[in-house]
Amino acid sequence: MRRALAALSCGILFGVGLTLSQMVQPDKVLAFLDVAGSWDPSLALVMGGALLVTAVFLPRIRARGHAVLNGFLYLSSKKKVTARLLAGAGLFGIGWGLCGYCPGPAISALVLNPREAVWTLAGILVGFAIVHLLFERPDKARTAPGL
Amino acid sequence: MNQFTPVAALSGGLLIGCSAVLLFWLLGRIAGISGILFGALEQAREGGTWRLWFLAGLLLGPLLMRAGHVISFVPRQDFPLWALVAGGILVGAGTRLGSGCTSGHGVCGLGLRSRRSLAATMTFMLMGMLTVYVVRHVAGVLP
User: Fold this and answer.
1) According to the model, what pLDDT value does residue B60 have?
2) Does the structure show a pLDDT above 60 at B58?
3) Backbone dihedral angles phi then psi of residue B61, each to the nearest 5 degrees
4) Residue B91: which of A86, A95, A135 has the nearest Cβ?
C-alpha cells in the first residue's frame, strides 16, 4: 500500500514535470533537436534541472545502500560501454528525431494528444517485442532498467 | 510555439529530478520509463505492481494539470502517421537494446555518473539531432 502510493506519487510528479516543461509537446522536442533550424534550447534546461537534483541525491542514496520502503536498491551491474548499448541508443535517437516522443512523454501524451500517442506507443511496444523475441531469451535474468 | 521557455523548462526538469530521487530513495528503483513500461508488461517477477502505479501517475499528472487549467495544450495535428509509428518502433527497439531512454540514462544514469549512460545519452542526442537535420533540411520529408 505504501509502496503503491509512493510509486503513484512519483509518477504524478514525473508526469507534471514532463507536462510543465513541455517535453510532452513533440514540436518542442523537435525544435530542440533542430540545431540547424530555429533552435530552441529549452529542453537542455529540462535535463539540466533534473540533473541538478539527481546528481546531488542519487549518489548519496546509493552510498547509503538501501531504500526506505524496499530495503534493496535495484542497480544495473553493467559497467562496459558495448556496441549493443551504442547501437540501441543510436536507434532510439533516430526514432526520437522522427516522431519527437521518447517513452515518458509518449505515455503522458496519451492524455493530451491521444490520436498521436496511441500510434507511437503502439510502435514502442512493437519495438520492445522485436528486441525481446530476437535478443532476450526468456530464461535470462532481466537487466535493471535505466543503466 | 517554438520560443525559449527557460523557467517552465527548468522547473519541470527540477520536478522530474525530484521524482527520480524520491523513487530511488523510497523504492530503490531507477526512474527509467522504458524499463518501467517494459517491466510492467512483462509482469514484474519482483517488486509487485509498483510499475503500474507509476505509469498511472504518468497519466494522472498531465490530466490534473489540464483539469486545473495550469496548461494550455495545443495538440500537434496532421503529423505523418508513418513517422509516428516508425519512430515509435525505433524508440522501443532502441531503448530495449540500449537499456534505457532519456530518463533512465539522461536523468538517472548521468546523475549516478555512469559511463554507460554518458555514452548512451551523447549517442541518442547526436542521432536525434542528425535525424531531424536529415528529415527537415536535407530530405525535407517531415515538418
Assistant:
1) 98
2) yes
3) -55, -60
4) A95
pLDDT exceeds 90 at position A138:
no
Output b/e per residue, B5-33; b: 16+ Cβ within 10 A.
beebbbbbbbbbbbbbbbbbbbbbbbbbb
pLDDT the model gives residue B110: 97
Q: Which residue type, as a one-letter code, is found at position A85?
A: L
Task: Label residue A69 by pLDDT band (50, 70, 90).
Answer: very high
Residue B58 to residue A18, Cβ atoms within 8 A: yes
Residue B19: closest CA among A24, A108, A5, A12 = A12
Provide φ and ψ at B36, rounded to 5°: -65, -45
Count how many Cα atoms sit within 13 Å of the Cα of residue A128 in the half-sphere of its side chain. 20
Cβ-defined contact of B100 to A50 (cutoff 8 Å): no
Which of A124, A20, A92 lies closest to B104, judged by CA? A92
- Collect all residues with Cβ–Cβ distance below 8 Å to A29 and sequence separation of at least 6: A23, A43, A96, A100, A101, A102, A105
> What is the number of other CB atoms lying within 10 angstroms of the CB of residue A36?
12
Residue B1 pLDDT:
45
Provide the grid cell at A62.
546509493
**Which residue in A93, A130, A146 is closest to B124 by CB distance?**
A93
Tens digits of residue pLDDT in A74-112: 998 899 999 999 999 999 999 999 999 999 999 999 999
Asked if A19 and B60 touch (Cβ cutoff 8 Å), the reply is: no
User: How large is the ipTM?
Assistant: 0.94
- Measured N-to-C along each axis, helices B6-27 and A2-20 cross at an angle, to the nearest 10 degrees, of 160
Helices (H), A21-141: 26-33, 42-64, 83-99, 103-112, 114-135
Q: B141 at the A interface (CB within 8 A)?
A: no
**Residue of higher predicted confidence among B42 and B96:** B96
